[in-house]
Write a structure and sequence with these properties.
2 copies of one chain form a homodimer.
Chain A: H1 16-24, E1 30-31, H2 44-58, H3 72-85, E2 96-99, H4 101-113, E3 119-124, H5 128-135, E4 140-147, E5 150-151, H6 153-161, E6 168-171, H7 185-198, E7 202-205, E8 228-233, E9 245-248, H8 251-265, H9 270-280, H10 285-312, E10 316-318, E11 326-331, H11 337-347, E12 349-350, E13 352-353, E14 366-370, H12 376-393
Parallel strand pairs in A: 1-12, 3-4, 3-6, 6-7, 7-8
Antiparallel strand pairs in A: 2-9, 4-5, 8-9, 10-11, 11-14, 13-14
């Protein structure tokens, strides 16, 4: 009565975060673990009005099968957005594919790019969801450390000079998950130059770019070279439950991705695409939405950072991010945050230990705290619980 | 400036059908090619009312991240449906995963089951979407011919006795795409027995089961053995554009599938799941919907079959299906229907040549005609055009 599974299932680790989310559904738990957008940010009234309009005025095509690369109304909006951001024309046909979240983009790219043993360059710490999606296709990860200015591109340059030939270089340049770091302009240019010199393909994953509450916006790496597949999503700026993201890349790559997308699920939900296109196409809507929600994340970030400094002083260190949803920290007197987590759960607060964001998962003194879900008052209460856990653990 | 692609892209064929769909978007083309459900079948008023209710009464959770295996309200409805159909309790937890259409279920199963070179048993002719999804993972297809009573299970029994050890046996037992055949009760029982004897895993793909307009419903193979992953979808009975399907299978298999689903796209659209659950949970809704739409397909099937017999007589042969969306035909004096298609397109009518549904794609005398999209009057006009094409081709 046994079943046989593919060897690639060895690369299928469960997400520590999603496993933790099940624990944190317990009543009275205050969770700093998940990266759920604050529910206050969802434009429910706009969605309601546009859903009604679609189903009463647009007719059956909004719930019919649609094109593999995406509904043209949405691709047109995406093309317009990035023609401005990339400072070059982005075509509606051939360069854009709408995906079930940017998570799916990683799965599709891995399918068409990675043979077992191929090298994928990733930052450390790394976005766990990307590691999960890629690991299934059995790459060899070449890890380049990051600092508060993003991936240390100069280290990548050394390894390329020494002969490294990666199939993909994966980066999250804005408000990295988990590190919160934003890649500097100099490193963006350097990475683009390396891509051109060494025929690299950069995957620029940018889910958080619109959630900037400090500093000046930086141009995407895709504005400096064509050798980029750029990923983004409606998950943080509208709502994640629709699972609608997009990828923009070289037509030669995207034609393979389109075939993989067709095999994977035919196309992204037609209704969700029409609905989101109608919401974001309203004149001035995106700017107004950012003006409404960015301060929510700024206030929560300040509340969490202030509370951690007040409660833990020099027992914890971190850089305050310029945007996004995560505070990445190091405990000065706790060498293993997986042990701290057990104390924290007993006190009624959850976070994600740093080793969850590494390839080898060796316990360390780091921790990721998300400020995106709880209110400022709840964040303060969560830190009080955390401080008791730190006392118990040390 | 070149890019390198994974060796598995060699298995990424584009769908002849979807390529053809682009041609058939030309005005005045009458398409018997695609399998789009008739737009008249979509319950737009119900969807509109429930969308409004969700976005006004349910709050932000309907557009928030949700569980990888699916929204519990929808899994509960699925469990209730199949506890009756499978004549055994189906659990809400552990056995069910909601997918982005049943196409995605095939992708996830291939990921967790198939190493390059593993044997997959498939019928001939075969559902092209399944071949596409599986081929990417480089199986060796072992093809078992079908007849008007489905896969010839007795031939599979012989090959198993001779030592064949497939990783997966893929069947579409109700109103097969493209053959229209329904697997007999005896063959269903025989296949279930073989699964138990040889530790096989059967993938029972049932997108069309609810569209039965002749004959008596037969129990699913999953009611005879636990060694089945059963797939179905809302695409034909509600609407395809939401991309919501489901899979039900052994917990040991489904726990791996859940990890693959998490890596692929985190979860299926929350909003689509809540919306469809609310529509189908209305007391008596599903029976009323079937009563409304099944006659639409019956009338279209009769219209197409009658018109073909009247126009082409003994130049074409086919069995009338008991349900579904497809008429599978053989031309008695046209050996290559890919050549016929060129004449047909010039006359303004499209269909899918039979070789599109084979692994080796050698041209043959078969053709699939879909009656799901056009009205009975349009079907008659399409057959007139086809008859002119047949005259020109022979």
């Amino acid at each position: 009565m046994s079943y046989h599974f593919a060897t690639r299932t060895a690369g299928l680790r469960s997400s520590a975060i999603r496993d933790l989310l099940k624990v944190t559904e317990m009543s009275d738990m205050l969770s700093l673990a998940g990266g759920l957008p604050t529910p206050d940010s969802f434009p429910l009234a706009d969605l309601r009005r546009e859903a009604d309009r679609l189903l009463s005025e647009y007719g059956p095509r909004v719930v019919q099968y649609s094109a593999t690369d995406g509904v043209v109304e949405l691709r047109q909006w995406i093309a317009d957005q990035y023609t401005s951001e990339f400072a070059r024309p982005v075509a509606v046909e051939g360069e854009i594919i709408v995906t079930h979240g940017s998570q799916q983009a990683l799965d599709l790219l891995a399918k068409v790019l990675i043979d077992p043993g191929d090298v994928v360059v990733s930052e450390s710490p790394a976005y766990l969801g990307a590691v999960q999606a890629l690991e299934l296709f059995q790459p060899r990860f070449e890890v380049i450390p990051g600092d508060e200015h993003g991936m240390q591109v100069e280290l990548l340059a050394e390894r390329l000079a020494a002969g490294l030939r990666p199939r993909m270089v994966y980066v999250v340049p804005n408000f990295h998950n988990p590190s919160g770091a934003t890649m500097s302009l100099a490193r963006r240019r350097h990475l683009a130059d390396l891509a051109d010199q060494h025929d690299l393909l950069i995957v620029e994953d940018d889910p958080y770019g619109a959630i900037r509450f400090a500093g000046e916006p930086l141009p995407p790496i895709a504005s400096f070279t064509d050798r980029v597949v750029y990923l983004s999503t409606f998950s943080k700026i509208v709502a994640p439950g629709f699972r609608v993201g997009w990828m923009i890349g070289p037509p030669e790559v995207m034609s393979w991705v389109a075939r993989a997308k067709q095999a994977a699920d035919l196309h992204t939900s037609s209704f969700a695409q029409f609905l989101l296109a109608n919401v974001v196409q309203q004149p001035g809507w995106l700017d107004a939405q950012k003006a409404r929600i960015v301060p929510m994340y700024r206030d929560r970030c300040v509340a969490l950072a202030d509370a951690l400094e007040a409660a833990l002083g020099d027992r914890i260190s971190f850089h305050r991010p310029d945007g996004g949803m995560f505070l990445w920290t190091r405990f000065t007197d706790i060498p293993d945050t997986t042990a701290l987590l057990q104390h924290a759960l007993r006190e009624g607060v959850a976070f994600v230990p740093g080793n969850a964001f590494t390839i080898d998962q060796v316990p360390d003194s780091k921790a990721r705290f998300s400020y995106s879900t709880l209110s400022p008052a709840q964040l303060g209460a969560a830190v009080q619980r955390l401080a008791r856990a730190v006392d118990a653990a040390s």
